[in-house]
Amino acid sequence: TEACLSAIEGASALNAFVHRTPERAQEMAAEADKRIRSGDAPALCGIPMGIKDLFCTKGVPSQAASRILENFVPEYESTVTQQLFDAGAVMLGKLNMDEFAMGSSNETSVYGNAVNPWRRGNEATELTPGGSSGGSASAVAAGLCLAATGTDTGGSIRQPAAFTGITGIKPTYGRCSRWGIVAFASSLDQAGPMTRDVRDAAIVLQAMCGHDPKDSTSADLPVPDFEAMLTGDIRGKTIGIPREYRMDGMPEEIEALWAEGRRMLEDAGARIVDISLPHTKYALPCYYVIAPAEASSNLARYDGVRYGHRAKLAQGDGIVEMYEKTRAEGFGPEVQRRVMVGTYVLSAGFYDAYYNRARKVRTLIKKDFEDAFAEGVDAILTPATPSAAFGLGEMTEADPVAMYLNDVFTVTVNLAGLPGISVPAGQDRSGLPLGLQLIGRPWEEGDLLNTAYALE
Ligand code: GLN
Fold this sequence. Notes:
Its EC number is 6.3.5.7. By secondary structure, the chain is α/β, with parallel strands linked by helices.
């Protein structure tokens, strides 16, 4: 804990931690020392972790990187962070992210962007750590903490993991409780760990999972011992390579990475089959209807009354002006865009044309995966991202849709509710890390982790 705290001090240029809790960390670490001495050390006893700002942490500011939650200090602890602390984890502080987890570069944060510890060769250009869990990725990659929590609605664990050379797993929808995590798109949001390697991911995920009666979508299923399942033996497993993920204009190095992953799994004794997931091309538009629709509804609660920021009002302003001014000041441009798109696709005249249509497409996307699994596929291998980390500002100058294209390989997994993992698997020409994604059957995170283990 002390080593991490001083590393965090020395790495403020990364802007990964947006709120530090050193005293609390020292206390928690001292408590962990006691437990270790008494021979009663749980799995994460004394492990220093960072917590994404999207998680409500009792008595510690939790702002979802938004101005609208300025000065919001929750009275309660999210289920997932409570479980981590029960397992002995030490909280070092809160981590940077895109505002309300909307983004792929951590550039929509009210705290300013986090920075990727990697550089292209000797270039000075600062790169994005990805998003939305950019602070989590940057902190783990730079060794500021041993693990971090992330959340993934459309790739926000897997894409930043790939951009920073670390491991990140989004478990099956319903595996981790969403209680106490600021909601973005409730039917897609899942928490998961971001770690240095697959074994750490298995250990931390174990502590995060489990049934929670406070989240109606949390699954009442036993949580297997994920670490014990890491045998590295994947002989006889069938790995599907979906042809629709081979896109026009895909950089050669991403192609090469994918081929290398395929070879590694084959060498480890897996059977590789080409598969088709025919509705893949509709995934991005489908996601960018459903996620904003749910977000517009979830974010309606930020009205200047119940939480955080309230705009200064002028003489004669009524409640409507208070809502309008507060929301105009409190939400950044990307969040406002999502609320407007979401409100539009849910409006009476367009509901059937957009929202209902997207829900039907979502069912088809899910069915594509079900069909592949029914044919005996155990896991699906794809690149995690269409490129390596890009420069800060590089994408924000383009139109917002260019940023959305980053999520092309990851959003299908959230739409289908499946577990997905990104593992570091190579480098681009300038030495930047690249990630491979494995997608697993529902509730089979243990198998998925073990397949990923074979790629390490
Ligand atoms: N980049 C995606 C978005 O902006 C995913 C975000 C996430 O997974 N939280 O919606």
